[in-house]
Each structure stands twice: as structure tokens, then as C-alpha cells.
Write a structure and sequence with these properties.
alpha/beta; 286 residues; single chain; 19% strand; seven-stranded mixed sheet; 9 helices; globular; 44% helix
Length: 286
């Protein structure tokens, strides 16, 4: 695992999401989208916020299908944010979902939107999951584990709460190479509070070492590049409806950061992956 020049503690990550959640609500008109999207082809000139929502939902659908989540499944969503993925899975499969996140503000927002669904939310860390051994059939996580300072501990915890034969399914940001220029480290990785990171191969190696058997490993960085290109467009479009100087400044900064990220992806200095792995019995763990 390549280490950051800076380490970001979980308390900082949680408080930052609490602080910035208001801006996310404004960007998405009160219904935030918090993970990247899988697109059908290029992002054309007509693509907009609705296009991004559809792409993000497609990511949830693909991950749900790859994990084979069913009505009888009991799912833990690690780094659930404002609850999009948990709500989608419960609504479309009938499964029961528990979401955990470091941000109290996001957990509160998530809980308020799903009173009619078999979903609950708790504030908790991926490295200290408040659940019994083997409590879940599936653990999922979307674009969240890159924040975790102690990744081996998080992998061990996710394995612990899975039953034998249970499935881990996730998307996460990748660090494709150790040769990251200092300006990219500071302007991209540190900005995202990225604690360490793996390439596609490194991620698989880490999961196998934690006691998982890899079923799917896919580099989906092209879609992450499309996601950030469209996010920059959405932020610029929001500028036309905003009068507050501070908010306009924040939107311009966000759009510029999104373009910087999509450029870094094009240079293979940042990436995105999808992984599905099954929990093997203890005797098979490496």
C-alpha cells in the first residue's frame, strides 16, 4: 500500500463531511448523489444532473446484481453517506440494510428518508463495526474505503461480520501507481482525504490476505473520468441560479477540482475499481 504524505484521522473525516454536507445538498437541490456513475457511452453535450443520477443508480444496480443481493439478504453498507445505495437496494430487492458512516449529519439525513423501508443507520467506523460475528450475508461499500487509515483492520472487520460464504462488494477510488507527483498528491489525494490506497492488483492482494476469494475485479476508471467531467458541468450550471458570492466561489472551486481529477485519471494518476469477493472459512485465510 502506498502511503500518503499526510494522514487523515477519522474524526477529521467525519467532521469535514458534517461541515460540507450543506454544500452538497445545495449542489443536488436537497437530494445528494454521492458516488460515481457508470455511463452508457460518452458524456454528450445534453448530459445533465438527471444523467448523472441515472449513471450513479446504474452503479448501484450493477453492484447489487454482481453481489447477488436478494430479498432474504441482510446487508451492511459501510460508508453509507446520505443513504442512496442502502435505499436503492432495499427498495428494489426487499433486502434489509444497515448503513454506517462517520458523519452524524449524513446519518441523520439518511434516516429521515427511509421510514417505510427495512433500513437503519448508525454512526460507526469501518474499523470498529458494532455488530456480531457473521451477522450479515453481504457487506457493500461505495467510494468510501479510501478514507480509512487502517485498511487491513477495516478488511478484517468486514470479514468478521460476514457469514462464511458471504459476499463483500465494493467500489473504491484507486491509487494506480506509487509515482504520484507532489502537486497531484497535495491537490488531489490530500484534498480528498485519501489515506493510502491500492492499484487494482494491490486491492485484490489485500482482500485475499484478509481472507476473501476474489470473484470480480474491474478497473472502471473511464467512467470515473466521465463522472467528474459531468460533475464539473453540473457545478457550472448551478452558478446561473446562485447569487451568494461565497457559494458561487465554492461552485467554481468545485468545478475546477473536478476537472483536475478527470485530467489526473487520464494520466493514470487516479482511478476507480469494482470488486466482489466471498468470505472463505478461517482455515483458508492467508
Amino acid at each position: 500500500m502506498a502511503l500518503n504524505a499526510t494522514s487523515f484521522p477519522e474524526t477529521l473525516i467525519g467532521s469535514t463531511y458534517d461541515r460540507d454536507f450543506g454544500g452538497l445538498l445545495r449542489l443536488w437541490s436537497g437530494s445528494p448523489v454521492q458516488h460515481a456513475g457508470l455511463f452508457e457511452g460518452v458524456v454528450g453535450p445534453a448530459a445533465n444532473a438527471d444523467s448523472y443520477r441515472a449513471a450513479a443508480q446504474r452503479t448501484s444496480e450493477r453492484l447489487t446484481a454482481a453481489a447477488k443481493i436478494e430479498p432474504t439478504s441482510r446487508v451492511l453498507d459501510v460508508g453509507c453517506g446520505s443513504g442512496d445505495t442502502a435505499v436503492h437496494m432495499a427498495r428494489h430487492t426487499g433486502c434489509a440494510v444497515v448503513g454506517v458512516d462517520l458523519s452524524a449529519r449524513q446519518i441523520k439525513h439518511a434516516a429521515a428518508r427511509c421510514a417505510d423501508l427495512p433500513v437503519e443507520f448508525r454512526q460507526a467506523s469501518a474499523t470498529r463495526l458494532p455488530f456480531t460475528d457473521g451477522e450479515f450475508t453481504h457487506v457493500i461499500s461505495m467510494d468510501a474505503l479510501y478514507h480509512v487509515p487502517n485498511k487491513p483492520r477495516a478488511h478484517a472487520e468486514m470479514r468478521r461480520v460476514l457469514r462464511v460464504g458471504g459476499t463483500l462488494a465494493l467500489t473504491d477510488f484507486l491509487r494506480p501507481t506509487d509515482n504520484i507527483p507532489p502537486e497531484v498528491q497535495a491537490g488531489l489525494y490530500d484534498r480528498l482525504m485519501f489515506n493510502g490506497g491500492h492499484s487494482v492488483l494491490g486491492y485484490q492482494t489485500a482482500l485475499v490476505a484478509a481472507g476473501f476469494e476474489i470473484r470480480l475485479a474491474r478497473d472502471i476508471s473511464l467512467d470515473l473520468r466521465r463522472s467528474y467531467l459531468l460533475l464539473a458541468r453540473i457545478a457550472r450550471e448551478r452558478l446561473g441560479a446562485v447569487d451568494n458570492p461565497g457559494l458561487r466561489r465554492d461552485l467554481r472551486s468545485y468545478a475546477a477540482a473536478c476537472l483536475d481529477i478527470q485530467a489526473a485519471i487520464g494520466r493514470r494518476q487516479f482511478g476507480w475499481g469494482m470488486f466482489v469477493a466471498d468470505r472463505v472459512p478461517d482455515r483458508e485465510a492467508v
